[in-house]
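Hey there, shall we discuss this one?
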Amino acid sequence: MCKFSKFRLFAEKGERNLYEYAFNQHVDALTLHAFNTIVYGDEHLSKLEDALYDVLSIYVWALPAHVPDINEENYYELDLASTALGATIATIDCLLGDKLHPQLRKRIDTELRRRILEPFKREIWHWEDRYNNWTSVCAGSTAVCLMLKYPDEFDALLPRFSENMRKFIAGFSDDGVCYEGAGYWGYGLSAFVMYALLLKEYTKGQTDYFKDEKVKNICCFFEKVTLYPDIITCYGDTGVDIKVNDFLMHSLKKEYPNDIWIPNESRIHIPTNQFAQILLYIENYDPDVTADQLKNAEYYMEHAGWYTKRTPSYSLAARGGWNGDSHNHNDVGSFIFAVDNRQVLIDMGTRYYTKDYFLLPQRYEYLETSSRGHNCPIINGQYQANVPETRSYTSFCDGVFSVDFRELYNIPKLKKLVRRFKATNTSVKVTEEFEITGEWSFTERFVSYKKPKISDGVIEIDGVYVKFDPSKGKATYTTDMHYTKNLDDTVNETLVYLTDIKVLSYGEFEFIIDTNK
């Protein structure tokens, strides 16, 4: 299934998902047969051994998108997939090693040394200088592999792993925000928690990351960006259908019983390609813990410049920040307005991953990543620029969330740009203050999946009303085609409506997003 014809697609065409899907099928099979052997007994052992033999025989455990050069020997590349697979194999060997054929156990030892232990000892990897999910997944998985299989080597390398995890934690804001978005929060934190739980047991409680206040803030992040039970704020490369690791949430609930919100079944999943994590999920699973009711709340995440408000009538997410985040979209100042468990004024989240999607300048030509496809103003005909050194300035005072994001447009003539959100229980008043020298144009943009209806001073979208003074603005809409791709390489087309208000009055413009007509 992991065919070379699929492996080479990334280098030749930028296609990565077909091979990754095939690779994950191997890892899923390994997990399935390991559990069947544990639960049902030795009649499944032969299938487990076959599954182990298959993955041990794959030329490189790293994914094609993470292999620097397919023309070079690269079986030792340490990436998200190879390190996670190393942790899985080490866990299986630790639990079931005595049942496995001696020849296969020798092969396991050879491959783990060759592909995980020796490469990690030989060099400092690029992800050790990152402050995102790569650091926790790669370092955490490698550490778990060594902790279980080569404890003496792990002890010698523990200071290095500790520094890796320090950088991972430093990649969050002090109030626990994952700048990469909720999807990568779940992915990176799952690996961190796996490592942290095992390390606490390994050190007999001497090292306990969960006592750290910032770690607690990070662990409590998910509720703060949940708008409705089925709507999670999808900033950056977070999909609109995001699900969070069930193991992770139950483990966090055990650590922080009064602080962790458990989502409903539609938003959770079990990571079938993460055997070690599933084992911890089972250990920490509490059948008495059920989904929590999502309460009305308001959060201003000051250090990140993010804001969320849930009311009985709607939910709102708005953001400041900058355009230099990992998995960044140019969306500072943008917002999501949701009602009745659905987005109305939307963020499309991520798209199908290809090589071009992660290259500059191609990345910001996509609707999903450009401010063209977000609820952001268009100034002098220009969208936000991808200038990572620029930033916004946010505040929250007297119920008003403000974003000063002039720098994000990289327009010398733009002297002032402040967007203010004043949220009540039924509506949000958005006020723009801007100053532009010389000739100017200012356009408000709204993005939706539903077709708008425009009348004098009112834009109706899916039962939500955007109201403005028609003497100060004129509304129109266009239709854009949003293309996505399936794993079988077929193309889906989704209609996206881009509704614009051309602002006619200089200096200030106001619109109200209302749930009442």
